[in-house]
Amino acid sequence: MKKQSNILKELLSTLSKNKRYVTDNKLNKTVLVDDAFNMKKELIALLLENQYLKEYFFTNVNKTIVFDKIEFQQVITNKQLLEDSFTKYKKEIGLSIKEPSPNLNNVVLDWPYKDCVLEGGQSNELEAKDEVFWNEIISKDEIDRLLRPKVFSSGELISQKNDKKFTSNDNDFFDKSNNLLIHGNNLIVAHTLYEKFANSIKLVYLDPPYNTPGEANTFSYNNSFNHSTWLTFMKNRISISKSLLKDDGILCIAIDDNEYAYVKVLCDEIFRRDNFLGSVVVQIKKEGRTDNQFFSTSHDYMIFYAKDKSKAKINNLPMTEDDLAKFSESDDLGYYRWRDFIRTGGNATPKDRHNQYFGIYVDESTNKIIGIGDKLDKDNKNSPEKYSPLKIYIRNSKDGGIESIDSKKFLKGKKIKTFFPLNKNGGHQVWAWSSIEKIFDAIESEEIQFINGKIKRKARSKKGIKPTTMWYDPEYNATAHGTNLLKTLFSGRKVFSYPKSVFTMEDLLQITLDKEDTVLDLFAGSATTAHALCKLNLKDGGKRNFILVEQMSYCKSTTRKRIKKVLNEQTDNFIYLDLQKLNASIFDKINQIKTHADTKKIINEIEKYGYLNIQRDIEKTLGSLKEINNAEIKFIKSALMDILDKNQMYLSYSEINDKSQKISDEIKKLNNLFYK
Question: Which of 39, 176, 373, 575 has the smallest set of CB atoms within 10 Å of its CB?
Fold first, then answer.
């Protein structure tokens, strides 16, 4: 593998041939940027001499070599703000503007390492690690390798009754279920899924470690830029999520107060601010957390973004029993309740909707609605008291059509009362509808009537209600319907911390998925998402699918087991996949070290091993460990694991036929079926 600084070394070596470009073994950035901007021949000629630099900074377009001077300038200036050379962003975290513009989409969030990729190699909640930040410009080849589609080492079809491992005869293996649980790093898996699921996922749900101060913080990376680390971690995953979504797809991120504001601005940048759909506050514990210092936290957030707001939709939630109880009357069409025909809420004045302000005329002798006046003239929208219709619309008794007559003729000799849309304080509002024909149809079908001195209409019980931004039902309590529910499923054992309420997830899936859509959950945790989907499918006969990804060691013992426990006749199976690890055998052997003799055997093997951490002084570490005879075994294990490259954990699909990897024909077939 090439080192991250390899390109800088190549630049120094090549450009030092021109004294203008290198001084005291340092690049003369000002001269180089200026010469690149002006396309100086001597600079371009030097760069073309070096094949490595030629591939980095030049593109072949119709047999013409084109110099990418913008990318060259980005690399040359990369060290201008931080000492470590891996990021061009300042050490502060905050808002910046890309360029002067009245467009608010130019306001972005900047932080150290924003221009990097963070794999996030943690596999155990007790394991904290210093992460490698791969710079997007300097380390293209490392990132390309890191994010290539990976090999699956095994596959199983899991159902309630049995588990069936993949065999060479399973030609239709991936046709047997559209539900997947994948054990592996979620960034790597997301990019692996891109090969098969690009632009096809309806909902991507991210419930990341919250980076919360104190014991609740599961983002336990030993890094001096903890906040920046988290932002980089999230940026990488939000970006790939967007490319996996359908055009009408939705991203939902669960988060708390500590990072809400930052992740909101980050999403504004990646998804665009005008694709923000809203934020929902979920009351997870009414009494709040008692370990908070100032306020007792009782809520989380869910942030919603659309890939394309013009194509997205949010479904209604089912009506509760309390909602249905409000519809106490019935007719041949079903249950209903009477409500005023006046429009409520915002934009409900004549100034806003002058064409919904008019008189409705009632025959006092029969209490029947017999006429509708002209709409308020636009010129009088600020003075509805001046309303004086020239015409009144009536229903023709012969042919049922609507006709207009002179207002004076209509009122002459009749006992008629005129009604206007006035609120309880006498203020002018507007009617609920503007279409005169629609109103007459409703009058004829008795959907609109004059009752108790008011114009009223029948409000029918709908199939659902629009979700609000405050979810405070007791069913959303994460202790009762998350932690305790999970304990019940696992015979009273606590197998996971801070699970969501299954009802929160069920309602989330209800409002974002249609009956045959797919949800991708990159932080599967205890599999609450899959549990909720199974419940919802059983309830309404849906065929929704899940793809869950979990990288932590409890994936098999908790995530997989819970899904198996909650499968039903509607959602009856799923496929479990493991990623093929490159250095898994070495990790296993290190974990099995018991004596110093074992240590020396492993060191001899590691010295011949290819996937080591280039950020460490490997020779010095191994040499020191060979000489140590009294160190704790725990320390030795930690030191050996530290020099293994955790960013080379998984085997790329492009290398599946490499004989040195010893991949069986059976596993090759599994992967070929997946990627076909």
Answer: 39
**Residues 343, 382: one domain?**
yes
Q: Within this chain, do residues 546 and 632 fall inside the same structural domain, yes or no?
A: no
* pLDDT tens for each residue of 302-336: 999 999 999 999 999 988 888 888 888 989 888 89
Residue 518, both tokens: 């797919």
Total count of domains within the chain? 4
Query: Half-sphere exposure of 7 toward its Cβ, with a 13 Å CA cutoff?
Result: 24
How many whole angstroms from its chain centre is CA 591? 35
Task: Compute the distance between CA of residue 358 and CA of residue 421 in angstroms, rounded to an integer.
Answer: 8
In this structure, are 51 and 15 located in the same domain? yes
pTM of the predicted model as reported, rounded to 2 decimal places: 0.73
Q: How many CB atoms lie within 10 A of CB 202?
A: 21
The answer to whether residues 397 and 300 belong to one domain is no
Q: Lowest-confidence range among 115-119, 405-409, 535-539, 662-666?
A: 115-119
H/E element, 331: strand 329-331
With a CB cutoff of 8 Å and minimum separation 6, the contacts of 414 are: 363
Do residues 122 and 204 both lie within one domain? yes
Domain identity same for 375 and 393 = yes
Question: Domain residues for 19?
Answer: 1-77
- Name the residue among 92, 56, 49, 59 with its Cα closest to residue 74: 56
Tell me the pLDDT band of 654, cut-offs 50, 70 and 90: very high
- pLDDT tens for residues 232-291? 889 999 999 999 999 999 999 999 998 999 999 999 999 999 999 999 999 999 998 877
| pLDDT tens digits along 46-88 | 999 999 999 889 998 888 999 998 888 878 876 443 334 445 5
* Contact status, residue 44 vs residue 15, Cβ threshold 8 Å: no
Helix, strand, coil: what percent of the chain each, to 5?
35, 20, 40
Sorted by sequence, the CB contacts under 8 Å of residue 423 that are 6+ apart come out as 342, 429
Count of C-beta atoms within a 10 Å radius of residue 51: 9
Which of 150, 124, 145, 148 lies closest to 134, judged by CA?
A: 145
